[in-house]
Fold Rrf2 family transcriptional regulator.
Amino acid sequence: MRMSEGVEWALHTCLNLTWLPGDQAVPTAKLAAFYALPAAYLNKQMQALARAGIVSSTPGPRGGFRLARSPEQITVLDIVVAIEGPDEAFRCVQLLKQGPGADPAVDYRQACLISQAMHRADMAWRRELAAQTLAGLKADVEQQYPAAPGNTSSALRA
Amino acid sequence: MRMSEGVEWALHTCLNLTWLPGDQAVPTAKLAAFYALPAAYLNKQMQALARAGIVSSTPGPRGGFRLARSPEQITVLDIVVAIEGPDEAFRCVQLLKQGPGADPAVDYRQACLISQAMHRADMAWRRELAAQTLAGLKADVEQQYPAAPGNTSSALRA
């Protein structure tokens, strides 16, 4: 089980956008060049973030992407779900329906205790990701790596 | 991101084995028939569980699989890791190494705050799965579905 690398790209790119003035849109080519990423593939991730309302896209020669809401209102979970989709990693196929004594009227995604156990773990994972905002990451980076914000905004404005 | 269906098969099969006497080995064909699963593919999962020390395999005409240790000593996490492997779903490729101001001597899997955030969520998921043993699942099933243990052991002994 492996998360797509687009999640890492999207998290870093959204964090980088927190260090630009809110009215400044950055073209995908510049966002991609920052980490030497393939622009076409990063653009797919940016479109997914736009569909999720995390970034907004401005067309035209001075266009590009910027955050669509404040970093306090964007969680790590929002970004992960925008790229990976909302489904849980464990998708119960209701194996119990094929077993002896199965009740065809029962939804075993709800009734099965194994399914419930896997769901509880997924919820713990989501709670942890939802507790972390871009604003929190931004503040932590600024404290631990004081040069990062300046380096980032000059590279993306250049 | 989707977990292999082998995880669901392995969890149900291990739970079913808790309802058999500890000295009774069940052949893969019978374990597979219980849920109408393809025996060859279930056998691959059983071999992975055997390599992880969760089940033991007895060869020969009366052979098969049984739990290798008591249900108190087998967690849901043990079974998930046996099938999916030990790696975290988010695998940091150290994107920061490709960014401006990168320090080639730094291991960004450790230093990157995004990597740390993803790691904390993975740990929360693992803690939850590690807190749930086969013994706990067995007890919960016995309380909520009192017919299940009897149905299971008769079907697997038949």
About this structure: Residues 27 and 64 of chain B are 4 Å apart (CA to CA). The longest helix of chain B spans residues 113-130. Residues 5-86+133-157 of chain B form a domain with the Arc Repressor Mutant, subunit A fold (CATH 1.10.10.10).
